[in-house]
Design brief:
about 270 residues; mainly beta; two-stranded antiparallel ribbon; 3 helices; 16 strands; about 40% strand
Length: about 270
């Protein structure tokens, strides 16, 4: 077993770059289920940042990214590899993998589509939600532990209930120390938080981690608060689904889905 890695607390970012493809997580990445794992939200942002930097083209935009979580993500130095698996002039598929101790722990596949003017056909059917100033503060640390949650600011609908909420969140921490990421990566670094804001059951009594995260976008987001209009569904045979309409301060921007494995917390 690898020795425990000391997470830096004085870095104002989720990660510190160690080399061309290696990153050290800071305490701001610390997971909610265990203090020796990385929360998936910043991991998603880091992989998106790597995809953005891989063979960049101004005429392509990220439209969908799906993450498969292959196991617990240790809070240790992490290596990111990226490759283009389906090149094209107007449609491109890129794969990125995050590995810890030479073991792949998260794999992402991203479709990049051509950018052009489609305003004559534009239309949005997602419901709007009130802005962040309309909701009071909510303290995620009342439900969850870990450095990631401690560094996130929440504004939640006062009519929230188990399995249903509208919440705005933001974090003061950069994705990678000293680097500027795209507005899309800036949003995606928070999206996995959705599975913890409308819990149906206590995380002290039940486990319901997601094994994937799929994000579809229909426009590039703007930086700032990220809005979550979230519903959580749990079935009777150990599966669940967290479904979220994503917003920025201009309005709806896309959708996120997370499949859950639901089981009682092991008794000590």
């Amino acid at each position: 077993m690898s020795p425990r890695f000391a997470l830096e607390e004085d870095v104002p970012a989720f990660y510190r770059r160690l080399g061309e493809d290696e990153f050290a997580p800071t305490v701001h990445v610390q997971g909610a289920w265990r203090d020796d794992e990385q929360h998936m939200a910043p991991v998603g942002g880091l992989l998106t940042h790597a995809i953005d930097l891989h063979e960049p083209r101004e005429d392509l935009q990220l439209a969908r990214v799906s993450f498969d979580i292959l196991g617990m993500i240790p809070a240790r130095p992490s290596r990111v590899s990226v490759r283009t698996t389906r090149p094209g002039r107007s449609i491109e598929l890129v794969e990125a993998t995050l590995s810890v101790d030479d073991r792949a722990v998260v794999r992402a596949n991203a479709w990049r589509l051509a950018a052009h003017d489609s305003s004559p056909a534009a239309g949005v059917e997602f419901e709007p939600m009130p802005g962040p100033d309309a909701f009071p503060d909510w303290h995620g640390t009342d439900v969850w532990e870990g450095g990631y949650i401690r560094g996130v600011e929440f504004r939640a609908d006062p009519e929230r209930r188990p399995g249903r909420t509208r919440t705005w969140i933001r974090s003061p921490h950069a994705l990678v120390d000293g680097e500027v990421c795209s507005p899309t990566a800036d949003l995606i670094r928070l999206v996995d938080t959705a599975n913890g804001i409308a819990v149906r059951v206590s995380p002290q009594e039940w486990m319901f981690p997601n094994v994937d995260l799929t994000i579809h976008l229909f426009r590039e987001p703007v930086r700032g608060w990220v809005g979550f209009d979230t519903k959580v569904t749990m079935g009777t045979t150990g599966m669940g689904l967290t479904s979220t309409t994503l917003h920025d301060e201009l309005g709806p921007v896309g959708r996120a889905e997370q499949i859950l494995t639901v089981r009682p917390m092991a008794r000590s």
